[in-house]
Structure formats: structure tokens, C-alpha cells
Amino acid sequence: MALSDSTLDLLYDRTEGWVAGLRLAALSLAGHPDPERFAAEFGGSERTVAEYLLAEVLERQPEQARRLLLRTSILPRVNGELADLLTGGSGGERVLQQLEEAGAFVISLDARRSWFRYHSSSPISCSWS
User: Fold this and answer.
1) C-beta separation of 64 from 91 below 8 A
2) Is the pTM for the entire model greater than 0.85?
3) Helices (H), 1-129
4) 48 closest CA partner among 34, 29, 28
5) What is the tens place of the pLDDT at every residue in 78-109?
6) If exposure means fewest CB atoms within 10 Å of the residue's CB, which of 36, 51, 79, 80 is most exposed?
7) Chain-centre distance of CA 111, in angstroms?
């Protein structure tokens, strides 16, 4: 499919350059009658994206990580202590660091890797809360 440079730039910005997000945007755009308009409205919470991530990513996470992701998804940022409080568990900081290392929706906000946020285009930050 051919998209204008401005539309490609917009998709890149909306996905923060996240390769999987770009791929999912392309899948969502495939066969759409107005791909330019769809791309302009793309926010990462479309049904196709959410279904893919639920089936392929979230369900493959260990129970502890899945619980942490779902229970902390409403927060603008999270650290291990807060995650532990919301999940009723322990080891939240370690789980967040492992998720970041695996490229699974989590971005570190500080040099010590103690505060995190969810990738803005992931359905975890948009629709699974």
C-alpha cells in the first residue's frame, strides 16, 4: 500500500517507532477503503491490534506479569512498590524490568530503572484497564 510521507510520519509518531506497532498498523490498514484517513485516526486501540496483543503477547506472559500489566494499566507511571500494592504480590520492580528488557510495552523513565510507563500505543495503556 502506498501512503504519503506525512501519514507515515504520523504512524511513526503514534507508535513511537515501535516496530510491532507499525506492523500492526499496517495489518489494520490492509484492505481499508481509505487508508490515509484510517492512518490519521489510528491510535493503537483498534480491535485488530487489541485482539492480536491479547492473543499473542499478553496470554504468553507468566501469570505474575499478566496480573501486573492488567492491574497497573490505568496508571500514567508505575514502580515496583506500587505494582506490588496493586497486585498483592512482590517482585514488581523485577517484573517491570524484565518486561522492559523484552520490549513488552514497558519503558523506563529513569536511569535507575525504577519508574516505568506503558508504551503509549499499546492497548495495555489504552484499553485493557
Assistant:
1) yes
2) no
3) 5-15, 19-29, 35-41, 47-56, 63-72, 80-87, 92-101, 123-126
4) 28
5) 999 999 999 999 999 999 999 998 877 789 99
6) 51
7) 21
